[in-house]
Design goal:
This protein has a domain of 168 residues: 3-Layer(aba) Sandwich (Rossmann fold). Strand 9, helix 8 and strand 10 form a beta-alpha-beta unit. With 262 residues, the chain is of the alpha/beta class. Helix 1 packs antiparallel against helix 2. The strands form two sheets. Strands 1-11-12-10-9-2-3-4 form an eight-stranded mixed sheet, sandwiched between helices. It has a four-stranded mixed sheet with strand order 5-8-6-7. It is 36% helix and 28% strand. InterPro entries: EGF_Rcpt_Signaling_Reg, FkbM_mtfrase, SAM-dependent_MTases_sf. This is FkbM family methyltransferase. It holds the Pfam family Methyltransf_21.
Length: 262
């Protein structure tokens, strides 16, 4: 019924259409709260704390709740894009953390080499090695150029210019084994629709990850993809928080238990 009304309202008046969309969002939010009553809800305002660097305060939320006064952590940035603009890990690096990042766009890689200390891997991650097809979103406002697995249909909603390219992909667990990395304090995963594939390539029994922010809006912008959550639940994580319309925040059960005991 609401779907039919939306189609009619879009033709009649933008205000009515916007109100119906708002009602739909409110109902989804209530359903989400009913299913996940313990999850902390954050609104996606599209802008971060001026002193920090994330799009919607991801770095602030993670730091304040889990790593306050920690100057010796280790981060992993998957889908780093621009090393300075709208970046979830820059704040932690500035605190003194070490880290690694994955960003396959060559010109973004040059910026990482110039401005960041984290070791950069210039390729994509997936659940299999080989060539994968990406969509380059050109001149997306506020994002520079970025790579996306989301179809042109979604990008067309924002009238972005896109171009398909083929790049090399590797598997997270293989890279971690080669690098001897077995512990990550904070992992940021934001690769525009390919998050599930990356998660399938992580061996959580070999690499202990304490906190993750995972972009989860490609299936349903407000609610997110339950398949991503199932993978995380199966690997001993809780869904600690949700930035509505954007990210899930996951915390390892053992890590949250230690925080409560200290």
């Amino acid at each position: 019924m609401i779907f039919m009304l939306k189609k009619i309202a879009k033709k009649i008046t933008p205000k009515l259409y916007a109100r119906l969309a708002e009602i739909k969002s409110e109902r989804k939010l209530e359903s989400f709260k009913k299913k996940y009553p313990e999850v902390k809800i954050f609104q996606n305002e599209g802008k971060g704390n001026r002193k920090l660097h994330s799009q919607s305060n991801q770095d602030y939320i993670v730091y304040e709740n889990f790593f306050k006064n920690n100057r010796e952590g280790f981060f992993c940035d998957i889908g780093g894009n621009h090393p300075l603009k709208i970046n979830n890990t820059l704040y932690f690096e500035n605190l003194g953390w070490r880290g690694v990042a994955f960003e396959p766009l060559p010109y973004m890689g040059e910026l990482w080499a110039k401005h960041r200390k984290a070791k950069l891997f210039p390729f994509a991650l997936s659940d299999r090695e080989g060539e994968v097809e990406f969509t380059v979103v050109k001149d997306a406002t506020g994002w520079e150029d970025m790579l996306s697995f989301v179809t042109e249909t979604r990008n067309a909603e924002f009238d972005y210019e896109t171009e398909k390219i083929t790049i090399q992909a590797k598997i997270f667990k293989v890279i971690m084994a080669k690098e001897g990395i077995s512990h990550i304090d904070y992992l940021s995963l934001d690769i525009e629709g390919h998050e599930m594939n990356v998660l399938k390539g992580i061996d959580f029994s070999k690499v202990r990850i304490n906190v993750l922010t995972i972009e989860n809006n490609s299936i349903d912008t407000l609610w997110g993809d339950e398949n991503i959550r199932e993978i995380m639940f199966e690997n001993n994580f809780i869904l600690w928080g949700r930035i509505m319309g954007l990210d899930d925040i996951y915390v390892h059960k053992d890590f949250i238990k230690n925080l409560k005991n200290n």
